[in-house]
Amino acid sequence: MFKHSIFLRIYAGLVILVVLVAMFGYLLVQIINYQRAQEYRESLTDGISYVIGESVARQKTLQQKMDWISDASDLLELPIYYIDSNKVELSRSEEKRISEQKAIVRYDAEQGVAYMILGIQNDPHHYLYVKADSKDSKFGERQMKALPVFVQEYLVYYPGQEEEYLNKIRQHFSYPVSIENISQTNLDSEQIGRLRADQNVILYRDSATVHGTTISIVAPMANLPGKVLVMGPVPMFNWMPFKLAAGITLLSMFLLCLGVYGLIVPMQRKIRQVNHALNKMKTGDLSLRLNVDGNDEMASLASSYNSMSDHIQRLIEAQRELMRAVSHELRTPVARIRFGMEMLADEDEYEYRVQQMEMIDKDIEALNTLIDEIMTYAKLEQGTPSLDFEELPLFDVLDQVAVETEALKTQKTIQLMPLSNDVLVYAERRYLHRVVQNLVGNAIRYCDHVVRISGGINTETDMAYVCIEDDGPGIPEADRSRIFEAFARLDDSRTRASGGYGLGLSIVSRIAYWFGGKIEVDASPNLGGARFTMYWPAKRFKAKKK
Prior knowledge:
By secondary structure, the chain is α+β, with helices and mostly antiparallel strands. The chain is 51% helix and 17% strand. Among the domains are: 140-148 and 166-239, 2-Layer Sandwich (Beta-Lactamase); 289-383, Orthogonal Bundle (Helix Hairpins), CATH 1.10.287; 386-545, Histidine kinase-like ATPase, C-terminal domain (Heat Shock Protein 90, 2-Layer Sandwich).
């Protein structure tokens, strides 16, 4: 059922599409945030790494450098190593960062450990290697409180020029670094007291702006009374900032729209083809047929359109053929009736007048028979007739036709092959009787002596059948398909002289069609003449009842 319903496929496609877009959005956020987090970590360390590198480079001897690094390690409570540069493999981007006096940060998410590599000015042969374990619950706050110490230690070498050298290093920081009067910091009395006690103050502020939560560090300047060093505000890392959320949302909506369009386009294309075909049909052109692709509703619609076009085209052709044939067939009896009437007007002899009246009566009966045949054929050809299928013994219908034919005194032998009353088929009795009657009547006209009637059910195919054979001249193989056309007659012994109007076999063919079966004609292997066999589903309607 799923593959046969285009709407279920669209709904399932939408669900799968939403899941895929959600997974894509999640992965995209993770990839973008991985890069953002890396850039964020590097931006936080760039400024202080420059200051530390300058401070290490300022030390004159190796021992002084090692002592300074040891003090810095104790201050940060992080291990800092002074290593040879040839022991560290750097990528091109990392080498570029070192040359620009920026820090390299390598983060191991599984271990929760960050490794920082810092360059040393005027010492390309050595790096500072720092290991920071972010799993430590106190990690971050201790290091942040220590950051102003390195800046102050750098500025203490330039007394009276603190602002000038602060401007020099400020370009390496991604966040503001300034020296301000303590009165300008908007601190409360408790925080000012801590500053006067030579303690650093960390300020957390929440903001409704895109920056969100920020953090600032305020440290007293020992050599500048009334002055403080303010580092920040530094925005905390936001895993889902407004711009990223808006971008991912818009991209997801765009992908969903593309996916929905991709799901709808095939159905839209098929609807457009059907609409084009219907417009062609309105102009009277019935030659266009639609491609039946798949088993869904659109394929069913295309198949129904093709069947409708075939049926309408067949009806139009049948109507034209019927009009031509009817006009031809009616002329003969009408002409005979007119001739007979003229003869009656000129003839005074009573017996001759009675003879002419009998001939006229036969012509009128022939007209009635022709009209009845035409009406039956038209009813079967132009649309689905009202069929009342029922379960009935096949033998009863065959026996009834055999008895009726025997009563006509045709001087022909009617052989009804034995058939059990237990053989039940689903059929419309009136039309099944008409099939057997027409086939037997046709065989009577063209046989030499014998007509054989048989029927049954093919157990392999579950198809019911009736078979009528005769010992006449048979039907040439080349003419077997043509005899089921309306008003068709052959040029051999099956001619107008044998009677009929050429509609009997056409009616049989249409009944077989509406029964869901078919009719075939070949040579009788036993009698030598023609053999007509009609097949139709024996239990088709019984299965539907279940």
